[in-house]
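Ticket #4471: structure output looks truncated?

Reporter: J.K.
Steps to reproduce: submitted the chain below (260 residues) through the standard prediction queue, then opened the result file.
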Amino acid sequence: MTAPITAAIMQPYLFPYIGYFQLIAAVDQFVIYDTVKYTKKGWINRNRFLRDGAPVTFTLPLEKASDHLDICERRVAAGFEPDRLCAQIAQAYRDAPYRRETMPLVEEVLGYASADLFDHLRHGLLRTCAHLSITTPIRTASAIEGVTDLRRQDRVIDLCERLGAATYINPIGGTTLYDPAAFARRGMRLRFLRARPFAYSQGPHAFVPWLSILDVVMFNPRSTLASVLAGGYDLIEEDAPSSLDAPAPSGSFEYDTAAA
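Returned output as attached by the reporter:
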């Protein structure tokens, strides 16, 4: 008998924070949206790294285009200089203990030869997962659902049904986006992942939480990361009152899969 499938669905992001990768590792199938609107002020193509003890925003610049285009329709700016950004990151982490083994990942992801934003982000997630030894299949929404008019919760439920998922897991920041009864009516369980605080040494500076995964891998051995990815979170039942009061990590993401 085939074991029940767990699934998660998110927008793709540029080197997202560790909770995103905990979510990928926690499920059997991970789906990323390609045909959802690009959010200009969101975190899709930007994040933060640490420089001299302070968070600094870095960006994958895009060609100017309509705000109504989907992620898969946006293009990386022709003038983007990955070598320059890589050099800035290398300099910022010049004293980090795992800089030498992390920089090839940074260079491969940022230097990826594709002007398609979605393709660029998908490649970055795949390569980072490989670096973290995460083997969960990452699938593209449109390849599963085709053309659809469904939105928000209805689209999530439809994707889960197409995957054959018995459980849908969403980041804790999305507790107000879904109706547990709607999932139950379709024979599915709804759960939320809450990342536990993960503090680590960032050199001589005070700890700054919830930065890009780049900061995490620069300062931590893979053995530590394997432990945090496998168990550094709590899975909250949809009817647990405490989950409704839990804030999303600062600087993480909008958790707006239901807005798709």
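Triage note (M.O.): checked the attachment and the full token line is present. Confidence is low (pLDDT under 50) at residues 240-248, 250-260.
Status: closed, working as intended.
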